[in-house]
Amino acid sequence: MAENGESVQRFWQQFHGPNSGYLEQQYELYKEDPEAIEPSIKEMFDNYGAPAWMNQQETAEQAVSQTTLASSVKKLTSAMQLVEAIRRYGHTEADIYSIGGYKGSKTNLLELKTYGLTEEDLKSIPASWLWDKAPSDVENGLDVVNRLRKYYTGTITFEYDHVNNNEERKWLFDLIETGNARLELTDEQRKVVLERLVDVQGFEHFLQKTFVGQKRFSIEGLEVMVPMIDRIVHYAAEDKIENVMMGMAHRGRLAVLANVLGKPYDKIFSEFNYSKEKELMPSEGSAAINYGWTGDVKYHYGAKKEVSNGDALKTRITLAHNPSHLEFVNPVVEGFARAAQDDRSEKGYPKRDFNKALAVLIHGDAAFIGEGVVAETLNLSGLPGYNTGGALHIIANNLLGYTTDREDGRSTRYASDLAKGFEIPVIRVNADDPISCLSAIKIAYAYRKKFHKDFLIDLVGYRRYGHNEMDEPRTTQPKLYQEIDKHPSVAELFAKTLEERSIIEAGEFDKLKENVDTKLSDIYKNMTEHDIGHPEAKLMPDVLLNGLDQFETAIDLETLRALNKDLLKRPEGFSGFKKTEKILKRREKALEEGNVADWGTGEAWAYASILRDGIPIRLTGQDSERGTFAHRHIVLHDTATNEKYSPLHGLSDAKASFDIRNSPLSEAAVLGYEYGYSVHSPNTLVIWEAQFGDFANAGQVIFDQFISSSRAKWGEKSNMVILLPHGYEGQGPEHSSARLERFLQMAAENNWIVANVTSSAQLFHLLRRQAALRGREQARPLILMTPKSSLIRHPKMGSPAEEFTTGKFKTLRNQPGLEITRESATRLLIGSGKIMVDIEEAMENSEQNYEWLRAIRLEQIYPFPKKALEEELKQLPNLKEIVWVQEEPKNMGAWNFVDDYLRDLLQDGQKLRVISRPSRSAPAGGIPSVHKTAQNKIIYQALNTSEGGKSSARN
Fold it and tell me: Helix 895-905 crosses helix 866-874 at what angle (to 10 degrees)?
């Protein structure tokens, strides 16, 4: 076309009206056959193309077509966004709240208008465009949205988008969106569920009316938790899992004990002790349930029960004892489970079988997010030294923490949000819908079985009464409790549903309730009252009074040489780190005459000999494989391949496993875990080591509530060893003291052993004695202060061969390097640990004559060796004073503990004094030069006849 656009436009502007219509007709003919029209008109079209107004019309039509297409694409992408939002955020509109203001909380993320959509828009989109596996009855986009809303916003909802493993996420996705997430129960099974709910409700109602105002931490509002646990036990028994290990706090504990663990009702009734002068006596069979001698409140106790799982096999259900420190039972139960799963019968690492045990942890909603030990325990779930093949978690969510609303109790939307950081899938479910709750158990159990990972169910209900039955919740949550007061129980709601479906008849529910009340009333009426006068606390068992020196712990020299030789062997082709191997090579000559074995060597020999005796060992802690102070090197790394090898795995005579693990940077959870392991496997020597002894502070609840007192409270035995590096080296307040005073303050009723030893042979014998205690009634934990960098390789901590091959652990040890002068001694110096080594060095470098001094190391502080010390004092006829020396401040360390024992040993005219740092608020100073001056002052006062320290004469 010769003409430009502007001239073409002017040309076509001269045609109007009928002429323009005629030209349009001719142009249509021209497009089909240019020769079919008059030559003059053909020439016009050849030169100027189509009439301008026709181009404009065509452009307009094209624009309309493109606009329509863009709109359709936008509606499709918006619909896809909506569908994805339902999957991701459906939980925000789910019907999981049966009561409370949260019931109606919504988000605009699930509204059609947010995405510029109408129902007609969705109907116009084929279902397969939005959901490639849409069921056949889902035909369009609106059907897709409605079906997915049903799956994700009902009484059960899901959060799993935070799970990064694609296989796990796809498994959950398929299970939910194929409609297979819901558990289908027969009519008879539904009736059984109703009966269980009635049992639970009837039990709680009976306690409420019979023991008015007494604490019981009722399960009402979360009664469905009992049939949920039933379902877990059912699945576990089907799969022949040998142990179901449970941990839970107070809420609902009595109902679980009665209805799941089978604790006799009369035993529970008797524990309410409604009278000061009389007590209810349970039946003879019930009374056989034994606890510790000091006891505990009824809602802290645990229990055990066995159920048949076919083929004459049994599944044991264990509910762990739990103090008021709610969530601290979590790692203990995980330790139970791991101990049950480990096969320790052969050398090397134990072999695990996840089917041996299942951990079930029931949390409170406020405590789950609020207690740090929960996060610590969740962090253990994927670690090779601690994972148990997945725990099932249930949050017993009653919307309140005592009197605290959730807005004041957590910074997250849900109590369960903490678990998302550990990629644990979450189901939230309405506690008023039993079928949805049991469906949640089905999914959680199947996930754990397939992937061996933790799963969390947030069971959302309410609390019928206050935090306890003496509490008035209407003071702090008046509006909430107005709603709760009007709200029917889950048993009533479920019975109504079954009645509407003709599964039960009218009146059948009332009959079930009457039967339960009659049963409980009859049990209660048949109990007898027993006059108890003025009841007194029981005493600890006599077996704990027996001495600990009955065990032979020495081994013959040839055996020791063989073990030492084995410890120096390496696998073929193993390339050890040269510096480390050079250090370890020195141990080869440790048994030769004139040589001594250092601390690390003595420790390794102890472990090797214990394994030779067929006793498994589990040792964990922060950096325990190498040792914080690089003394242990019990796990070696191949410098070429980074493969690990432990010399204790290569022992030819080892008859049991050696499980050595570096732990995560956790105290409370790991310490609780190892305690639990030691309880469930009493024949294993379980050892936990703190990086520095001070770090044990962070596990204080486990020490207070479990390790120190569980035997007296619950009859629960542990033989574990706690290694706590302790000693003053000028490293400041956080790296000096293991807080020895705290363990001595809790020392009573021979509950544990507290020691601070000063030679490798003493360590050897002490660990072997502890191993010998395993599984016996005399068993108890060992709290051991261990040396740090300045002492751990100190020559004076070494021991010659004969100290390993003869004798046994000494509770009192003569001060090395000091001639025993009983007749001339006027001062008896007693101390424990590092300070006595420092004093030994000072004496060695001094020219002074110490005939006036008798010095003894107190190696075992508790049980205090009073008789042995008394015998020693009888041989000191000219004694004028007993001096206790310690490097800790006077208000810390052992002084306040040994004070009474030493005072009782004083004779007329004798004095008792203490030499120490002054009383302080912090355990140590942070300036090395000041530390050194203070340390030298203590040593000077201990070794000079002039008085120093606090005097305390006996009258």
Answer: 50
In degrees and rounded to multiples of 5, residue 339 shows phi and psi of -65, -35
Angle at the Cα of 571 from the Cα atoms of 566 and 572, rounded to 5 degrees: 125
Rounded Cα distance between 216 and 596, Å, is 61
Q: Using CA atoms, how far apart are residues 954 and 903, in angstroms rounded to an integer?
A: 7
Q: Which residue has the higher pLDDT, 214 or 603?
A: 603
With a CB cutoff of 8 Å and minimum separation 6, the contacts of 439 are 156, 181, 182, 183, 429
CA–chain centroid gap for 360, Å, is 11
Phi, psi of 784 (to 5 degrees): -120, 120
392 closest CA partner among 242, 255, 236, 517: 236
**For range 270-299, the mean pLDDT:** 68
**How far is C-alpha 694 from the chain's CA centre?**
21
Share of the chain above pLDDT 90, in %: 73
pLDDT at position 527 is 84
Residues for the chain: how many in total? 955
Give me 74's structure tokens. Answer: 């936008």
Q: Report whether 770 contacts 606 (CB < 8 A).
A: no
> Residue 179: CB partners within 8 Å, gap ≥ 6?
135, 151
Q: How many helices (H) and strands (E) does the chain have?
A: 35, 29
Other beta carbons within 10 Å of 875: 12
- 457 SS3 class: strand
pLDDT at 948 over 90: no
**Tokens read off for 632:** 């242990």
What is the residue-wise DSSP string for 264-332?
A: -HHHHHHTT---SSEEEEPPTTGGG----SS---GGG--EEEEEE-STT-EEEEEEPP--SSGGGHHHH
What pTM value is reported for the model?
0.90
Evaluated on CA atoms 767, 772, 778, 779, the torsion sign reads positive
- CA distance readout (Å), 721 to 185, 576, 735, 771, 779: 49, 30, 21, 10, 11
Q: Determine the pLDDT at residue 299.
A: 80
Backbone angles phi, psi at 651, to 5 degrees: -65, 130
Tens of pLDDT, residue by residue over 728-745, are 999 999 899 999 999 999
The beta-strand segments (E) located in 507-631 are: 528-531, 617-621
Copy the structure tokens of residue 403: 């009197």
Euclidean distance between CA atoms 929 and 381, whole angstroms: 45
Q: Please provide residue 106's backbone torsions phi and psi, each rounded to the nearest 5 degrees.
A: -135, 170
List the one residue out of 764, 773, 829 whose CA is nearest residue 798: 764
Token pair 């606090």: residue: 950
Distance CA 718, CA 781 (A): 6
Average pLDDT, the chain: 90
- Among 65-69, 258-262, 304-308, 880-884, the range with the most confident prediction by mean pLDDT is 880-884
pLDDT at 537: 72
Distances from the Cα of 804 to the Cαs of 553, 560, 602, 687, 808, in angstroms?
A: 8, 8, 8, 21, 8
